[in-house]
Amino acid sequence: MKQLSKLSCVTALIITATAAAATAATAAGPAATQQVDGVIVVAGNTCTWSNARTSANPPTALTIDRTSINTPGGNLSCTGGITATLNNNPAATFDDAAGRATADAIDITVKMSGISCRYKATGVQWNRDGDTRKYLNQAFTAAKTSGLFLCPGSVTIAAGDASLLFH
Fold it and tell me: How confident is the model at residue 155 (pLDDT cuts 50, 70, 90)?
C-alpha cells in the first residue's frame, strides 16, 4: 500500500511539473532561450528535468516538446524507483499583466513496481513568483485515464508543490 501511495504522489508531481513547464510566463530578466527546468518534491520523491524545449518564449502562446523532457531525448528523472512519460505536448497561454499562465492539458504516465497509471489534467493554472520567470502551481486534480485498479482514481496537487524556471 505504501508503494501505491508513493506512486500517487509521484504521479501528481510529474503532472504538475509538466504543466508548470508549459505555463511559465515572461518576467523581468535576460531574454529567454525557449527552455524550462522543472523540480518537484512530494512524499520524499524528487522529479527533475532541465532544458526542455518550447516552441516560443512567453508571453507568446507556446507548446512544450515532450521529446525534450522524456528520455532518451530529455533528462526527466525521479527518485524512489519511479519512471514517468509525458504523453502530449502541452500548450500554454499567458496573462503577463496578472502574472498567470494556463496549460491546456497535461497527459502523463507514471510507472512504479511494474504498475503503470495514466493521468490527465486540464486548465492547470500557474502563478509567477514575483518578477522572476519562476512559476508555482495552483492546486488542481488530475483524473486517471487508464491503469489497474491499484492506481488511484485521481491525484490532487497542492498549491506550490511544483515550480519551474523559464530561461
Answer: confident
Instruction: State the Cα–Cα distance between residues 16 and 68, nearest whole angstrom.
Output: 17
pTM across the whole model:
0.80
Residue 10's closest CA among 43, 59, 56?
Answer: 43
Rounded CA separation 167/165 (Å): 6
Q: 149: buried, middle or exposed (CB in 10 Å: 19+, 13-18, 0-12)?
A: exposed
Q: Cβ–Cβ contacts within 10 Å for residue 131, how many? A: 10
* Burial (0-12, 13-18, 19+ Cβ within 10 Å), 155: buried
Tens digits of per-residue pLDDT, 59-90?
Answer: 889 988 999 999 999 999 999 988 888 899 99
Residue 165 contacts residue 134 (beta carbons within 8 Å): yes
